[in-house]
Amino acid sequence: MASVSFRTRSVPSDLNTDLGLELLDVSSPTGDSIRSGNAVRSGIARILVRHVIGDNNANNRLDVGDATIMQRLLTGLEQERSWDVTGNDVNANTSLDSGDVIKVLRVVANIDPQPTPSASSGLGRLAKAGLGKAGPTGASSELAVLNADRLRAQPGDLVTVQVVLQDVATSIAGASFTLDYPTNALRLLNAQSQHTGSLVPASAVSVWNVQPAQSDYTAQNGRVSFAAASPGSWPSNNGALAEFVFQVQPGQTAQYRWPIHLNGLELTPDGYDVRDLADSDLYFIGRDPLPPHLGASASGVASDGFHLSLSGESGVPYSIEVSTDLVNWASLTTLTAADGKLDFTDAGAKDAGHRFYRARQQ
Description:
This protein is mainly beta. It has three domains: 15-124, Dockerin domain (Type 1 dockerin domain, Orthogonal Bundle); 143-285, Immunoglobulin-like (Sandwich); 293-361. Helix content is 8%, strand content 35%. It has helices at 64-74, 82-87, 98-108; strands spanning 15-19, 43-47, 49-50, 123-124, 143-148, 158-166, 174-180, 186-188, 194-196, 205-210, 223-229, 239-248, 257-268, 275-276, 280-285, 293-302, 305-311, 317-323, 330-336, 341-346, 356-361. Strands 7, 10, 11, 13, 14 and 15 form a six-stranded antiparallel β-sheet that branches. Strands 5, 6, 8, 9 and 12 form a five-stranded antiparallel β-sheet that branches. A three-stranded antiparallel β-sheet has the order 16-17-20, with no helix packed on it. Strand 13 and strand 14 form a beta hairpin. Helix 1 (64-74) packs antiparallel against helix 3. The longest helix has 11 residues, at 64-74.
């Protein structure tokens, strides 16, 4: 007849919550009351203590959602109970403050390790208790993409890369992600090389981690993590989340394509619901690709066809075409050599007097 979803609240200890059900009336299609054969059955929800201090959304880890809920408690947007202070005192100073928010974001940005869940912590956590998870879940079409002002440049030039959210259906109060980039081709120069995008309000608490030493750019290993959270919704839910300015390195010519990989992106509209967005990739071009080279393999003509070898650029797809007159060409197959070399067989060569082959980069 109906479905009701509840958001469980933090609790100081394990407890049972009664869910009472009262039948007001039941009527027949004619409008007459049905007074017999009716029964109601009430229920009980079991709410458990949390396992991690600061884990407000009860997923046994710290994320941007937890930082968002802490800020909502600090600003009075959510009611603070005495056990909310104890359960969120990440910096162990017996109070709920901005330091606890920063401590959580440091974990999200991979500066500090995730805490180990403890079943005996004695602190309240939100338990779903079989009632389901309420709140918006986002749209399947929402994306996080990487955009660059240019994909090819000379050593010393600057290349700007943005993390952009598209088709996000819900509001945003927090976000986090990790970006992997090739330091042989691209490097961040200093603390001004990365900053929040237009999507993130100036009031948001943001933490950056240029790994492995956060602010030591001489030691950067090609991974940077970011986390930002606010007590309320951001003004917009689509646009630039973050921006990076890379300097092109002389080592870019060692490879044709250099991958820039966005991963682990999480969004939360309210702190409680935290969802993942798919990874995204972008390729910076370091030099022209190696031209493909076709030749007969060691076995040459065999009973199963003509054996050929292909050498070219690693990871680049090549279309193999065949002709009998060097005028009309037909596609035979498309191949990608993981290590730049591969062998393949043209079974159709068994029935042909002669055939010519060529390879083209896709």
